[in-house]
Amino acid sequence: MVDYEKIGFKCGVEIHNRLDTKTKLFCGCKPRFSKEKPDNLVKRKLRAVAGEMGQVDSAALYEYLKDRTFFYQCFPEETCLVCVDEEPPMSVNKEALEIALQIAKMLKAEIPEEIHVMRKTVVDGSNTSAFQRTAIVGLNGVLKTSQGDVGITNICLEEESAGKVKKDGNELTYRLDRLGIPLVEIGTAPDIKNPEHAKEVAEKIGMLVRSTGKSQRGIGVTREDVNVSIKGGARVEIKGVQALDMIPLLIENEIKRQQEMIKKGEKPIEETRVAKDDGTTKFTRPLPGGERMYPETDAESIMVTKHMLSKIKIPETWEEKAERFCKILPDGMVDQVLKSDYLGIFEKLVEKYDPVLVANTVTSTVKDIRRNGLDTDLITDEILEELFSFVKEKKISKEAIPKVLEVVCKNDISVLDAIDKAGLESMDEKQLEKIVEKTLNDHFDLAKEKRFAPLMGLVMKEVRGKIGGDIVSKVLKKKLEK
Ligand SMILES: [Zn+2]
């Protein structure tokens, strides 16, 4: 057992979460991945400029020295002149601002009376302007955890970067649909006590953001950066952690790496490392210096009035939600739903449909489909609403849900088309009775001994997805009693 206090363990996390808003943060583009092919390509060269202190930032310089050329893919509805940095930004997306302020309130942070948009130097080409716009909306908050309070140093509203498509020597290609999607960044103080605690903190912050009901979902929507150092070592930032479960292992490995260097008489340096799938990390660049931020002169500052703040309500807390869910779901399911990124739509659907069925669908069914390698991002809120309305109208049985969603994910089609494609149009009781009678005739021995279970299995094999198991059971029992 490692004594983390004794080794001088210091750790903080930074959570980034994309918000589900109608437009991007500083323009009217759709904040989503385009399904279209790029309709334009922009070529750029970037160079590092001296920051306000007259020094060239070391991280910036490092990237500059690589002498790269950048290509940017544009998309019809997801890219505009602001996105390619040919036009100044529009005023900040109010919806995104309100969500960020709501999160700041939930974390009991101090909210500045005037919010200033800043530019943060980014020279890896993932921003067309070579900077990322960011605004501090909250400072000095606090997060309650099982191991005491963890300070929240800052809550920022920022632009998402462009997504990397490929790297070909010194030429990098990015897609611009992702650029400018609103993002909240939440950074903690180095109050984290041990690797497991880091996971809890990251998880709690993720849940808090999702409880606004305005978090995007899918792979890559939440990203964690972890800062770690030990006595005699150096602060290392591990970037791009996508799975919460990996956090403890990544931290333990980083501690070991620094300890081994110290043992050999080497001095670890402050650096940025990227998380790999096996729980180890890889050097990416030196840690950026302090010259990265300067004011965004093209964007107006935002006044936060008392009136504006009073209108922003804090959503129900986690504990309150859990208590409410305990009344409608079996114990084991409550936690799964709370941690699910389908929480928002779950809340909406349970007003009309069977909570257990909805919970099962958004947790285990989606997980199974994902495990089979299908793109579950295609299971949108609209798809789920359509699906459950069909179940309610008895157009399909509830047993057909996994099949329908699978076909939706496989073909990127609507629920109605998936039902057609899978041949899942439901049957009525008359048609079912015929199948039951035929099964009883074909398996006369089983029928004579009234062996319900095997007969039920045989009938279900024929009708699964087309009519509910409860109805099959009722009809079969009735026939056997005759
Ligand atoms: Zn745009």
Describe the protein.
With 482 residues, the chain is an alpha+beta fold. The chain has three domains: 293 residues, no CATH class; 105 residues, no CATH class; 53 residues. Helices cover 37% and strands 21% of the residues. It contains 16 helices and 16 strands. The strands form three sheets. A ten-stranded mixed beta sheet has the order 14-13-12-11-1-10-7-6-5-15, with helices on both faces. Helix 6 runs antiparallel to helix 7, helix 13 crosses helix 15 and helix 15 crosses helix 16. The radius of gyration is 27 Å and the shape is globular. The model has no long low-confidence stretch (mean pLDDT 90). Zinc ion (ZN) binds next to loops. The site of zinc ion has 8 residues, from loops.
Spatial extent as radius of gyration: 27 Å
Count the helices. How many?
16
- Tell me the number of strands: 16
Report the β-strand fraction as a percent range.
15-25%
Overall geometric form:
globular
Distance between the termini: 68 Å
